[in-house]
Structure formats: structure tokens, C-alpha cells
What we know:
The complex is a heterodimer of chains A (about 120) and B (about 130). Chain A is mostly helical. Helix content of chain A is about 85%, strand content about 0%. Chain A has helices at about 5-10, 20-45, 50-55, 60-90, 90-124. In chain A, α2 (about 20-45) crosses α4 and α4 runs antiparallel to α5 (about 90-125). Chain A is elongated and about 65 Å long. The termini of chain B are far apart. The interface of A and B includes residues 25 and 115 of A.
Amino acid sequence: MKTPFARVRGLGTAHSGTEHFWMQRVTGVANLLLIIAFLAVIVNLVGSSQASVIATLSNPFVAMILFAALISVLIHMRLGMQVVIEDYVHTELRKIALLMANTFFTLAVGIAAAYAILKINFGL
Amino acid sequence: MAEPRIQIERPLSPHLGIYHFSITMAMSILHRITGCALYFGTLLLVWWLLAASSSARQFDIVSAVFASWFGQLVLLGYTWALLHHMLGGIRHFIWDTLRGLEPGDREFLAYATMVGSVVLTLVVWMLGYMLKS
Lengths: 124, 133
């Protein structure tokens, strides 16, 4: 039997509280600022040669902004897609599989992008 | 002993079909759709970054695809999705402070999101073409 205290500690069947909501807000604010900076970089790179793209992305400030945006965007998009999956997929097995795929996709995007940025900055 | 289950006819919550169209509803749906589009669109960014980091040939391929009419259309749509989602997010921040929830305010914010996203997309693209090297 579950006592009310145990239920509060375990946060009921949801197993979590407001972290999801709060994280979506925190990363949302971060995204707002970082994506504006990112757009400024991209707008400047329209039609640029590979050499000047590499030169721009090798700028320490640009690279760090890009990394910050990457982290914030990845957390935000994973949480967002999680809600979409939970809203529309009601078969338990399918839901778990898709939630896992969501994590894998997010990580794959993050690792590939991080690899490219690091290579541009340190490996070329 | 197991009691026989009593079937109770519980009311179902009204589903999508019974609502008539409203602009706030449309912006809510678009916020979700643009979010999903941005999610998968990150692959475009990854492709571009990987190509830039690998070889001239790879970079030329991605540049050619992005510069084609279809590529430009996708990127234009992606820019709009990004800015629409961004303005939709700002709208949520306003609501989080309990402002902008009254009738009239809600509709104003919805129209502002729609018009703002289109205008900002055009501004970003005009800047892009003006600064094009």
C-alpha cells in the first residue's frame, strides 16, 4: 500500500513533476536568444564559399554560440517531440519504442553536429 | 469472489471534430506542426555542417541542393517554421505571466504570430540576398 507521503515522494504515476514544463521554458528562452544569433551568422553566410564558411565557424565566439544553441535546441526538441508522442501514441510498446527513438535521434543529431563543428575548429 | 463488472456509460470528452475553426486553434496546431518540422529539419543543418567539415565536393553538393529552387523552397519554409515557432513561444511566455488570455487579446496574439512570422521571414531572406556573397 502506498502512503500519501510515498505517493508525493514518487510523484504518482507520472513519476515526475514540473521539470518537463520548466526545462521547456528555460531552453525556450535560451533558444530565443541563441537562434537570433544563429540566424545572424547564417544570413551572413548565404552563398559563401566553403573556405569562408569554415573561417566563420572557426571563430571561437561563433563556435561557442553554435554549441550553446545546439545543446539548448536538442533538449527543447526532445521534450517537445516527447509530448507529441505521448499525445498521439497510446499503445504502450509503440510509445516506449518511439520515445527511445526520440532520444536516439536527438543524440545522433547532436553528435553529428558537434563532430562537424569540432572538426572545423580543430581538425582541418 | 469477483464482482461482475458494471458497465458505466461515461461521457466522452468532445474531440477535434466538434470544434469550429478559430485563429487561436490554428496557431496552436501550427506551433506543433512547425515544432515537428524543425525537429526533422535539424538534419539539413547537420548535413550542411558535415559537408562543410568534410570536402569541397561534399560542400558543393549541399550548396547546389540548397541553391536549387526546391532547396530554396524548403529553406524558406524552414525559416518560416522557425520564426513562427519562435513567435509562438514568445506568445506562450506572455501567457505564462497570465497576460494576453482575455478574449480579443488571444486573437490579437494569434494574428500577430501569423503576420509577424511571414514579415520576419521576408526580412531575413531579403537580408540574406542583400548580403549574399
